[in-house]
Amino acid sequence: AETKLIAPSILSADFSKLGEEIRKVEKGGADIIHLDVMDGRYVPNITIGPPVIESLRSITDLPFDAHLMIVEPERYVPDFIKAGCDMISFHMDACIHSHRLVDYIKSQNVKAGVVLNPSTPVNTLEEIIYYIDYVLIMSVNPGFGGQKFIPETLNKVKKLKKLMEETGRTDILIEIDGGININNIGDVSSAGVNIFVAGSSIFKAEDPAEMVRKLKEKALY
Length: 221
Ligand code: DX5
Ligand code: ZN
Known about the structure:
CATH class: Alpha Beta
Number of strands: 8
Order of helices and strands: EHEHEHEHEEHEHEHH
Structural class: alpha/beta
Bound molecules: D-xylitol-5-phosphate, zinc ion
Strand order of the largest sheet: 1-8-7-6-5-4-3-2
């Protein structure tokens, strides 16, 4: 069967009780915890960094997926690895030597991903695709939770699938991030996405655990 994983983004959780919030989604069957790191430069917001991630590490055994929306990610990646991240993605336009950074992340036994903004074409992956473990496709502009899914993103997923086939990298996982909810996750899943990040649809739901369950059910069709 195809890989289909739900990755709640704690960006929309209650920051005064992150531990509890993580336990809730874990009960619902969450597969990965998505951590949105923003520096106020690459994106307008500032969120969390390695100390918060490190203190959450003891709360759960679920993999931690750090989405670095920061300039010069290479300066901080070692700290995120020390904090206990299992997957790290960064935006290639924020980094001068992306290949070196991908190499470094993998040398530390951490999965390496690169992120495409809505305006970034799939063909920017043509060379790095031979080295990465996953691609994170933004289906909103990075910086904020609770935005609306950009429907053209589905075409992009198809283009990426094609590039994966052409390059023999069909093992790469496709992650999507932004505006994912119970109404669109089915179509997004059919397009070939493997990892579904969802922030507000999960943490603003009455019962976040139940929402994780429902999202997973729809992702598996
Ligand atoms: C946006 C972040 C997303 C965000 C998704 O910059 O990368 O992970 O938390 O939130 P929703 O699911 O509310 O669009
Ligand atoms: Zn994210």
